[in-house]
Design a protein that fits this description.
The protein has 301 residues and is of the alpha/beta class. It contains 13 helices and eight strands. The strands form two sheets. Strands 4-5-6-7-8 form a five-stranded mixed β-sheet, with helices on both faces. Strand 5 and strand 6 form a beta hairpin. Helix 8 crosses helix 13.
Length: 301
């Protein structure tokens, strides 16, 4: 069973709390996970931000909406209980409780107006309801993929020399090669036997990594990787990075997976993602800081 959406959680949540005087939030999450027969893996699955399990996030928003509609209340920190209105709702035996159902309550209407919702705001990719965090993560991923495409378009237009410098800057930003000046001396200067450059693996230079950079349009196949591996052996090297602006064939990836030597393949998608991650060739357009209530601030002895 997949992780239920927050609107699917509302009715079971309210039904569970009805039989209790008050329940801890932690107990509610655990009981609902059992109700929906979620596996341990499903319970641990995180939001794209990596900050919170998806199921806990959805339970949290189901809880928030029920409270805004006056069906639940918090008698004390970390606990919930059903209200008289909540009991009346359950006496009607509804088949489902969702945002449309909750719009009958003035408090929830006011809450929705304050949020100035946009048409279809509760739909992710036009399908199932999503929490605000999931909508934000989805929008961020869309913007990121657009940026990946723009970066690759720019990289393919640049000269081979500029591409070599780009690779150097990225590797230095990732912690390889010491300073840019040191790395620039090593990368782009050899072009010897299938090797485009050599860079220090760490700032102290305990080991080196051999580089091959291909600004290609077509997929890189196994023969090209074999040439690179052969060049590494000629230098008695065991570590290499093959970077391309395109992709690698399945045969090339399978070949690398069976090697004893450590060969890392970086395709155009991954190259652009690394540039974004390490602020290479990109700049910050805007920043949003998500904040939450500091419960400790309001704690009373």
């Amino acid at each position: 069973m997949s992780i239920p959406k927050y609107e699917e959680i509302m009715l079971p949540l309210l039904q569970y709390i009805e039989s209790e005087r008050e329940c801890s939030v932690r107990e509610i999450v655990d009981r609902l996970a059992g109700h929906f027969k979620l596996t341990e893996e499903e319970q641990r699955e995180l939001l794209p931000s990596g900050q919170q399990p998806i199921f806990e996030n959805r339970v949290g928003w189901a809880r928030t909406y029920l409270k805004k509609a006056g069906l639940l209340e918090s008698p004390r920190r970390g606990f919930l209980r059903i209200t008289d209105r909540g009991r009346v709702v359950l006496e009607r035996k509804p088949d489902r409780i969702d945002c449309d159902f909750l719009m009958q309550f003035p408090e929830f209407q006011e809450f929705r107006v304050r949020r100035t919702p946009q048409r279809g705001e509760d739909k992710l990719e036009g399908k199932e309801a999503a929490t605000p965090e999931e909508q934000l993560a989805h929008a961020y991923e869309q913007l990121k993929q657009n940026l990946v495409g723009e970066l690759l378009e720019q990289i393919r237009k640049c000269s081979p020399t500029f591409f070599e410098k780009l690779v150097v800057r990225l590797l230095v930003a990732m912690g390889y090669g010491g300073t840019f000046a040191d790395a620039a001396k090593a990368v782009g200067g050899s072009h010897d036997e299938g090797i485009d450059g050599i860079i220090k693996e760490d700032r102290l230079g305990f080991d080196v990594v051999y580089i091959q950079a291909k600004r290609w349009d077509g997929a890189v196949g196994r023969p090209e990787i074999q040439k690179f591996v052969g060049a590494l052996k000629g230098h008695r090297a065991r570590k290499g990075v093959f970077i391309t602006t395109s992709t690698f064939t399945k045969e090339a990836e399978d070949y690398v997976s069976r090697l004893d030597d450590k060969i890392v393949l970086i395709d155009g998608q991954r190259l652009a993602e690394l540039m974004i991650e390490h602020d290479c060739g990109v700049s910050t357009a805007m920043t949003y800081r998500l904040k939450k209530v500091d419960a400790d601030f309001f704690g009373e002895e």
